[in-house]
Write a structure and sequence with these properties.
282 residues; alpha+beta; Killer Toxin P4, Chain A; five-stranded antiparallel beta sheet; 26% helix; disordered N terminus
């Protein structure tokens, strides 16, 4: 049982999805269980230091029960919300993936993962998930052109930045704009960040073609676009989606359908006005 003592009263993070990525398990009170608890507690402790990203290990280099963990907070959120998200992730990942030696969880505000293998400074694209708005755009060709320009700009900005994070918006019509965000974990090379983000953008036609919003989650990077402002600009207070945007429940319901897509196991789930696909190597 993970015990975390700091009391956090910041804005509550919004859970999106999790994946228990292997079938290797551990028993309660085992060496791995103790190492994992210490790793997750260490991640939370470092979230209080206002770090957007942190990785840590408990156990020796040759220890078969070594527990590696990391978190990545969205680059525009406050330290308090980052800490709150890491706390929620640390607690929920143990509940959602009980006794699993490898897992990943995504929130709107952060991502957290742990593993019994090395996951640091290695670009990884799987496992991953798609999330898209079920509402269609009215002019797909114009929308896709703007979206392509936006994503190209964002990827270039993020890869060239010190923290691999970028947000941007562009005119969609005279009265509307399109908003985007991309981010990589800062422990990988800029060239790998470019590969990861470019792969995410390349999957938009598969997951979100003609949709008003979409996300692609990978362990080493993620992208998001919406027809409403969803990130915090430096000169503005946090922005919220329209009142008719329904967030998905937490935790998710069991998979609705499962198919094989492009050599990957694809699981589809429905959350209010959004759907999510999870893909794993078959």
């Amino acid at each position: 049982m993970l015990i975390i003592s700091p009391k956090i009263t910041a804005q509550q993070p919004k859970y999106r999805y999790h994946i228990c990525t292997n079938t290797s398990t551990f028993t309660p009170n085992s060496a791995f269980s103790r190492n994992l608890n210490q790793t997750l507690s260490s991640l939370l402790s470092n979230a209080t230091l206002s770090n957007v990203f942190h990785n840590t290990t408990t156990g020796g280099l040759q220890d078969p029960d070594r527990a590696n963990g990391l978190f990545l907070c969205r680059g525009d959120i406050s330290p308090e919300l980052c800490q709150s998200c890491v706390k929620a992730s640390s607690e929920n990942i143990i509940t959602l993936c009980p006794n699993q030696k490898q897992a990943i969880i995504w929130y709107d505000e952060c991502m957290l993962r742990y593993s019994n293998r090395s996951i640091f400074a290695v670009m990884e694209e799987e496992p991953g998930a798609y999330l898209w708005n079920i509402n269609n755009v009215t002019s797909p060709s114009e929308f896709n052109e703007t979206l392509g320009n936006l994503m190209t700009t964002l990827v270039n900005e993020a890869v060239g930045s010190s923290n691999f994070f970028a947000t941007e918006d562009m005119n969609l019509t005279t009265f509307s704009r399109l908003y985007g965000l991309v981010q990589c974990t800062p422990d990988i090379f800029s060239s790998d960040c470019n590969i990861c983000l470019t792969a995410c953008v390349g999957e938009i036609p598969t997951c979100c073609n003609g949709k008003k919003g979409g996300r692609v989650y990978k362990p080493s990077c993620n992208i998001r676009f919406e027809s409403y402002p969803f990130y915090t600009e430096a000169s503005q207070p946090p922005l919220s989606p329209p009142t008719n945007a329904t967030p998905p429940p937490s935790p998710p319901l069991p998979p609705a359908t499962a198919t094989n897509f492009g050599g990957k196991h694809l699981i589809q789930q429905i959350f209010g006005d959004h759907r999510i696909n999870t893909y794993l190597t078959s």
